[in-house]
# Entry
Amino acid sequence: MKRLLSSMLALSAALAGPPVLASMTGGAGAPQTGAAAPAPVVTPSDFSLTRDVKRTVLSNGLTVLTKEVHGAPIVTVQVFYKIGSRNEAPGVNGIAHQLEHLMFKGTTDRPVQFGRLLGALGADFNAFTYYDQTAYHETVEREKAGAALQLEADRMVNAKIDPAALTSERNVVLSEIEGDENDPSYRLERAVQAAAFPGSPYGLTVGGTRKDIEGFTSEEVNAYYKQYYSPQYATLIVVGDFQTGEMMKQIEAAFGKLGTPGTAPVGISAPLVPGGSEATLGKTPPAAPIVLKEAGATPLLNAVYPLPDVSSPDAPALKVLDYVLLSGRTSKLYQSMFESGLAADGGTLPYQFARGGWYTFSFTPTPDTDLAQLDAALLKTLADVRDHPVSDEEIRRAKTSITTGTLLDTRSIDAQATSLGIDATTAGDYQYTDKFLSALQQVTAADVQRVAQKYLQDGARTVGYFEPTKAEEGAGNAASAGGATQEAFNAGPPVDPAEVAKYLPAFQPSGQASVTLPEKYTLGNGMTIMLLRDTSTPTVSLSASVKAGREFDSDANAGLVDLVAANLLSGTQTRDELTLAKLLDDVGAQLSPAANRFGVQIGGASRDQDLPVLIEGLADILQHATFPEAQFKRSQARAIQGARQGDDDPGSVALKVFRKTVYPPGNPWQVFSTPETLAALTRQGALDFYKTHYRPDATVLTLVGNFDPAQVKALLNQKFGDWTASGAAPDVTYPVIGKPAGIVKAQSDLPGKTQAVTYLGYQSIARSDPRYYASLVLGDVLGGSTLSSRLGTELRDKQGLTYGVGSGFSALKQPGAFYISMQTNPKDTDKAVQGALGILRDVRDNGLTPTEVSTSKNALLSSYTVGLSNPAALAATFTGLVSDGLPLSELTDYQAKINAVTPAAVNQAAKELLDPDNIVIVTAGPVAK
# Structure
C-alpha cells in the first residue's frame, strides 16, 4: 500500500489523479441520471472545490461528504479514519500501517482477500497510511458504488485479525520497509527527522520500525482496530455520477446500523501513548550535521526546519514562499542550485499537519560538487529571501501557479475526494482548501519575507549529509545456464472466482460505456492532430509524441535521446530559458517532455483561456530549440549523477541486466546509458539529433478540453503549418531473437541493500499479435494485481514473501517481453522464484477455469470504463494509439474484443506463451546469507 504521500495538505490536490472526461457516457441499459449542463467557464479565482459538497452526519457519528459530478459514469468511495502515525510512540510505531495491510485480509462475513473482491468489481483501489489519517479508496462504475459502500462498511467493524493473518502480513510490511531502506535518501531523511523532533511522533517513520512491527500481537492490533475503526472516527467521501438523495439511502443502509446512535464525530484523535509532545516547534536542533557514511552511489543533503500546524495563518505565505524558492526555472533555488551546476536533483516542500509541521529541503550534488558547497548555496539563497523582499512579479507568478495547479490537479473525481478527505481529517475542515486559496490572494511580499525570517533561520534547522562509501564487490553480472533448483513447490488450488463471487454484494449490470473519438486530421506537413472538446472543466489537457525515443540510442551514444528531451525547455531561437519559463509560469501552464522507448512524450495542461500560451510554448520547443552549451553541460552532469544513482538501485539494475540478458548486443531493447556514455555526449550531437528526428511527420498532437475546435484549428495551422522536413523519417530495425535455451540466471550483487528485485521472462508478442486480447486476460489472472492475481495470492497473501509482485506482456509495436517482477528479502528470493515458476507451469499445463476467465473479462471491462474517465489519460491514449500505427477504433472495439475472448483461446495462449522451462531469471540486490 502506498503510505508516504508527498503533499502539502493545504493543497492536497497534489494527491490527484487524472481528470474526468465529460464525453464518456453510459450506453444502452445504463441507469439514466439526467443530462448535466456544461460547467460554466470559471477562472481559478472562481474555483471552489466544495461549492457542491453536501455534509451529513449520521446518528452514529459518521461524517459523510457527497458531491455530484456528472459526465463520466463512475463513482469514487473513500473512507478516511482520523488515526495515523501521529498517534504513535516508540513501541507501537507502525501499528496504523500494519492494520491498514490487515484490512485487506477479509472479514468475519467475507473471509476472502478484499483485493480480490475489489478486483472483481473492476475497481481502481488502494489504501495509504499517513501522519494524521489512514484511508481506503476505490473508484468504480456507478452501478457498483453500492457494492463498494457495503464492502467498506463491512471492514469498518468486521475485519478478521488473527495470528495467522498478522504473521503473513507482517512479512509483507517488513518487505515494504526493506524496499524503502534500499534508498539512501529514505535512510537519511529518517535520521534527520528523528533528530529534529525527538519525543514527537512526527519524528517517527510512517511505516514503522522492524523492532516494533515484529513485536505486535494480534490482540494489540485488534484492540487498536476496535477502538479507532468506528463511525465517529471516520469520514466517508463519495464523489461522482449519482443523485444525492438515492446515494444517501445507500450510505444509510450500509453504515447507519454500525456504531452507537447519538455518538458525536471525533474532531481529532489522541496519541496512543501519553507523554511527549506532538509539536514540532520549540525543539532545539543538533548543532552539527548528522552524517551517514554508508554504502551508496551519490552524496545527499537533507535539511528540515520546524513549522507550525496546518491551522496556522502563516500557511498561505509559506506556500507562496515555497513556490518563490523552487517551482519553475525562474525560481530562486532553481537558479542557485541547478542553473549554477551545483545540484543534480532535489526538491522542497512545506508540510503542515494537525499538530505540527516542517519545511524539508533535499538535494543531490552534481559529480564535481561537495556537500559543503551545496549546503552553502542553499543557506545563501535562504538568507537572501530573509534579507530582501521578493518581487511583486514573483508573488504574482507563485499565486497563479498555486491556484491554477489546484484547479488542474483536482479535475478527477478521486482527486477531489482525496482532497476533501485530507482537509477533513488533518485540518478538521473539509472547506480548508477553498479558504486557503482565498487567503492566498492576500499574501504580500512582506508576508513572505516575514515567514522566511520567522521559520528559516540557520539555527532552527536540522541538517544531514549522506556520504557514500564504496561497497564490497560482489558476484557481478555473470549469467549462467542450467536447470532450476529442485525445490518442491505446490502452488495449491487455483484462485476460485466463484468463491469470491459468493461474497460480492449485489449490483446492477453496468451499461455499455462509450468513448467519443476525437476529430483526427493531418496538416499538409504530415503532423497528425486530434481534437476532442470536453466542457466539464475550464481546462485543456495536451498530449504530444515525437518519434524520437530511446530506440534511436546506440551503445556509443546511450542517453542522447533523454538529454535532448531534457533540454527542449532550455532555450529557443526566440526565447532564452528564463523567457520561455516565464511564458508558461506566468499563467500556471504545464509542459513536460520525457523520453521513452518509442518516442518523446510531452504532457501539458492549462486553463482553457491560456491554451494559446500552451500551444505557443509547444510550437517553440518542437521547432526552434537551440540547446545552449551551458545548459546542456549542466543537464549532462545531472544525468551522469542520475545514472550513478540508478546503478545503486536494485530495481533499475535488475531491469538493465534482464534486458541485456534477454536481448543480444545491438538490439535497441538492451541499450542503457552509463556515466561514461553520457559524459561523451556533445551539444552538437544533441542539436544534430534534434534536427533529424524532430519533424512534423513524426509528431502527433492531441488536445482534450474546453475549446472551440475551429479556433484551435486556426491556431495550430498558424503555429505548425510552416514546419517542414525533408526526406524519409528515420526508422529502426529490431532483430528477431529466440527464447533462451533452458533457464538462464544472472545475479547482480548490490551490498548494503536490504531487498532484492527479481525479473523473470523472455521476449514475447507484439501488439499486433492475434493473441493480444487473450494475453490481456491471461496476464490479468496471472499477475495483473498484487492482491488478487494467482501470483499475488500465493506469493504475497498466503506466504508473505513479497510486498509487490506482478507480471504482464509488454506487447508494444515491437515484440516486448513477458515478465514477472518481484521484491523480496534475499533469503526468500529462491523460494519466491520457484513459486512463480510453479504457478507458470500450472497455468500452462492446466489452464484457467471458465470462471477465472469470465471474472477477469468483467474486471477488465470495468477498469476500462474507470481508466478512460479522464481527459489526460484519454488524450495520452489517443496519442499512443496513433503513434503506434493503430486505429482509434481499437478504443471503441475494445469491449467487443474482450467479450469475444473464450476460455479455450486463453488456455491456448497460455500453452504457447508461458514457458517456465526456457526463461531468464535476473536478481539484483544483496546476496542471501
Summary: The two ends are 28 Å apart (CA to CA). Confidence is low (pLDDT under 50) at residues 2-43, 473-491.
